[in-house]
């Protein structure tokens, strides 16, 4: 077959050959303008679109990373604030407990002091009552022993002197 093509080329006149070459060149120019030009333009546009899509994807990735970092920082801050709130609540509860304990202790001390004061008053009243009873008994005994009645003022003076001697001993 190759041999027949070469034979055909040797037998082809020069005018036909020039016509074929010129037609081929014109066809190439037409193809370049009609097919190759728009095709390369479409391919260039496609390459530009892919490049811009890649750039957009990279930018979106960077924005996503920044957003993740920002959210992580906010989460850390929120955790720290929550820890501070818990610590503050614990401190407040402890202070309230200490205040309540201090008030309870103050109240207990107040009750204790009041009880001591009441006991001291009751003791003094009991001693005064006992003094009065002792005085009356002493007067009764003394009057029976002496067989005479002492006046009330004499009795009181005698009792006070006796109690004074008891207090000094």
Automatic annotation (TrEMBL):
Quaternary structure and partners: F-type ATPases have 2 components, F(1) - the catalytic core - and F(0) - the membrane proton channel. F(1) has five subunits: alpha(3), beta(3), gamma(1), delta(1), epsilon(1). F(0) has three main subunits: a(1), b(2) and c(10-14). The alpha and beta chains form an alternating ring which encloses part of the gamma chain. F(1) is attached to F(0) by a central stalk formed by the gamma and epsilon chains, while a peripheral stalk is formed by the delta and b chains.
Region feature Disordered, mapped onto this chain: 54-89
GO molecular-function term, one example from the UniProt record: proton-transporting ATPase activity, rotational mechanism
Location of the protein in the cell: Cell membrane; Endomembrane system
Chain ranges passing through the membrane: 12-31
Encoding gene, per UniProt annotation: atpF
Membrane topology: Single-pass membrane protein
Organism: Convivina intestini
The keyword Transmembrane belongs to this UniProt entry's keyword annotation: yes
Cited Gene3D superfamilies: 6.10.250.1580
Keywords from the named record: ATP synthesis, Cell membrane, CF(0), Hydrogen ion transport, Ion transport, Membrane, Transmembrane, Transmembrane helix, Transport
Entry's family note: Belongs to the ATPase B chain family.
Principal location listed in the UniProt entry: membrane
NCBIfam families reported for this sequence: ATP_synt_b
The keyword Ion transport appears for this protein: yes
Role played: F(1)F(0) ATP synthase produces ATP from ADP in the presence of a proton or sodium gradient. F-type ATPases consist of two structural domains, F(1) containing the extramembraneous catalytic core and F(0) containing the membrane proton channel, linked together by a central stalk and a peripheral stalk. During catalysis, ATP synthesis in the catalytic domain of F(1) is coupled via a rotary mechanism of the central stalk subunits to proton translocation.
GO cellular component, one term: endomembrane system
Compositional bias ranges of the Low complexity kind: 80-89
Protein known as: ATP synthase subunit b
């Amino acid at each position: 077959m190759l041999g027949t093509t070469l034979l055909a080329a040797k037998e082809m006149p020069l005018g036909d050959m020039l016509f074929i070459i010129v037609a081929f060149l014109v066809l190439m120019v037409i193809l370049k303008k009609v097919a190759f030009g728009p095709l390369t333009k479409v391919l260039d546009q496609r390459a530009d679109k892919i490049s811009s899509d890649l750039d957009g994807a990279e930018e979106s990735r960077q924005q996503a990373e920044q957003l993740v970092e920002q959210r992580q920082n906010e989460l850390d801050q929120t955790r720290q604030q929550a820890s501070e709130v818990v610590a503050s609540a614990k401190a407040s509860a402890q202070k309230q407990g200490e205040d309540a304990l201090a008030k309870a202790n103050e109240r207990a001390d107040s009750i204790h002091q009041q009880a001591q004061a009441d006991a001291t008053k009751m003791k003094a009243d009991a001693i005064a009552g006992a003094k009065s009873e002792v005085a009356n008994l002493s007067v009764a005994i003394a009057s029976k022993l002496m067989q005479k009645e002492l006046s009330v003022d004499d009795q009181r003076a005698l009792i006070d002197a006796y109690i004074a001697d008891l207090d000094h001993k």
